[in-house]
Design a protein that fits this description.
By secondary structure, the chain is of the alpha+beta class. It is about 20% helix and about 20% strand. The protein folds into 3 domains: about 1-70, no CATH class; about 85-185, Membrane-bound Lytic Murein Transglycosylase D, Chain A, CATH 3.10.350; about 240-350, Glucose Permease (Domain IIA). The strands form 4 sheets. Strands 5, 6, 8, 9, 10, 12, 14 and 15 form an 8-stranded antiparallel sheet that branches. The protein is globular, with a radius of gyration of 40 Å.
């Protein structure tokens, strides 16, 4: 009823229905009601006032203060910074080269080549759409093999065990908790130069005595039986043309597998399987065989693995199927021979 009385007074009419005699100009009811509704409208303007005030502060503050304020405004309270990955994959784009990719990610181009053994002898012949392993710093990504020790790895690559232990990407507490098939990041490591193949001299021809004519002297001794055949050396794990040769930063040979996807891959020599695993750093499904004489062979990019670690395989026995897993641009076999821990040219050892 109080509102009715006020409205009536404004309109010049008393509450009893009579007309007031006041000559004061009458304010229209619509304007008066509007006056009563203004306070809520002022509340809605507060954000714009705050924003305007903030803009005035930023306009007069030093640039560093403004940047810090903006960073604090966008930061999530209590959020933990995401650590940078030790290495990642990069898809090759048109116009890329080894030098441009290395410069983009702030690393030496040698480390881009060393971490990608699938690069051909011409490092700038990159396949658009292919993948490269890119380390976040000048470091090598190393796959631990059977029999590896941290001291041996450090000595081979010219660094110290502390360099490996201090790298947070390795998550190593001590040199003793090195696990087989683990992946290590070796900061500042340099691959050792491969040794030159050892030339095996041709055997001297055996002395063959002249035959003794029949009837002269004693009876000739019977010829000794031929010794049983023993497989020595290596055989081809798969027969096809070579698409990439050993050399430069390519630690083996690539045997083309066009139209042969799934073909069996044979053990190049008898030995014990020391690794049958998947690799995120290039090889895909791969197998390593230790032959017990200081040599090992590696078979990479398999579509299937048919053996397991610790298994003995005979020369020529299938170890897996040809494929294109890992960093591969098509079906082929990447084949390596290592002598005393060093990669050598397989063609110097194959028949």
């Amino acid at each position: 009823m109080a509102l009715v009385a006020v409205l009536a007074a404004i309109g010049g009419r008393a509450t009893d229905g009579t007309t007031s005699a006041s000559t004061t100009p009458v304010t229209p009811i619509a304007e008066t009601v509007s006056a009563y509704l203004k306070p809520p409208v002022l509340v809605s303007t507060v954000p714009s006032l705050v924003a305007r005030h903030q803009a005035e502060i930023e306009a007069t503050a030093p640039p560093s203060t403004v940047a810090a304020t903006a960073a604090a405004a966008t930061a999530t309270p209590g959020a933990t910074p995401v650590p940078q990955a030790a290495y990642f994959t990069y898809t090759i784009q048109p116009g890329d080269s080894v030098a441009s990719i290395a410069a983009r990610f702030g690393i030496n181009d040698a480390y881009l080549l060393w971490n990608n053994p699938e690069l051909s002898a011409d490092p700038d012949m990159l396949v658009i759409g292919g993948s490269l392993l890119v380390p976040s710093s000048n470091s090598l990504v190393y796959h631990v093999r059977y029999g590896d020790t941290l001291n041996g790895i450090a000595e081979t690559y010219g660094i110290t065990t502390d360099d490996i232990l201090r790298n947070p990407a390795n998550s190593l507490v001590s040199p003793d908790n090195l696990g087989e098939a683990a992946v290590l990041v070796l900061p500042g490591a340099v691959p050792p130069a491969p040794p030159a193949p050892v030339d095996t001299p041709a055997p001297e021809p055996a002395f063959i005595p002249a035959p003794v004519p029949a009837g002269i002297g004693s009876e000739p001794e019977p010829e000794p039986a031929a010794p049983p055949f023993v497989s020595t050396g290596f055989i081809w794990p798969f027969y096809s043309s070579i698409s990439t040769y050993y050399g430069g930063y390519h630690a083996g040979i690539d045997i083309d597998g066009f139209n042969a996807y799934g073909a069996p891959i044979s053990a190049a020599a008898s030995g014990t399987v020391v690794l049958a695993s998947w690799s995120d750093a290039g090889y895909g499904y791969h197998v390593i065989i230790d032959h017990g004489d200081g040599t090992q062979t590696l078979y990479a990019h398999l579509s299937e693995i048919w053996v397991s670690a610790g298994q003995w395989v005979n020369q020529g026995e299938g170890v897996g199927a040809l494929g294109s897993t890992g960093y591969s641009t098509g079906p082929h076999l990447h084949f390596e021979i290592h002598v005393n821990g060093y990669a050598v040219d397989p063609l110097a050892y194959l028949p």
